[in-house]
Amino acid sequence: MELGLAGKVVLVTGSSKGIGRSIAAAFAREGCNVVVNGRHAAELEVAAAEMRGASGAVHAVVADVTEAEGAKRAVEETVRRFGTIHVLVNNAGGVGRFAAFAELTDDEWLDVFKLNVLSAVRATRAALPHMQKQKWGRIINISSESGTQPDPIMPHYNSSKAALNSLTKGWNPHQHRLARLYPHSARRGNVRAASESTRGFPRRGRENPFARIPAEHRPRPGWQIGRNCRHRRFSCI
Predict the structure, then answer these.
(1) Active-site annotation, residues
(2) For a Cys staple, 65 with which of 38, 115, 119, 201, CB 3.0–4.6 Å?
(3) Which listed CATH number (3.40.50.300, 3.40.50.720, 3.30.360.10, 3.20.20.10) goes with 9-233?
(4) What is the pTM of this model?
């Protein structure tokens, strides 16, 4: 597919595996200069090596974007390597521990908000001056349907994704282009979407946390909604 992105510089946070890795690989196939990011050097280098056969250049930056300096360094290393940044994909995210509201500690809430919200805030803050200077930029925040269809066993995650949705939607579309994507039914580590079956968890010796939710209360698949040139929400059918 030719999307006219060849030569653009793209940073994808949390891209050593899962959704982020697939996003980074897709940009590399389009001829973009891609920066992959993660906390574990060995894992990140394996992902980068697999993408280097594509038409775009691939650079790996080890940085923890849950910390202010880590998010800033990921952007700075992107600019140092390729001269600028055109596209930022705020993909870094996670659930933390599956638990009911009464079982979660303050630290668990703070950790999830640092990962799912502040990482995007900090990376965006660092990338914006470069995009404004060149009068071109795109920022994509990877969210979750849990931000609008919350699951009872991860209230901290639901709330963090709702906050990310609000952040994205609240931007002035005439000044900056941001998009919000809702991946659905994607396998990430030991987690599956709530609407999936429990098949596969016993083989790995883990309980499927979503099995505790009655079927009638599990999130229903959604449809794409939105307007051209404004924020978009995607949820897989």
Answers:
(1) 157
(2) 119
(3) 3.40.50.720
(4) 0.77
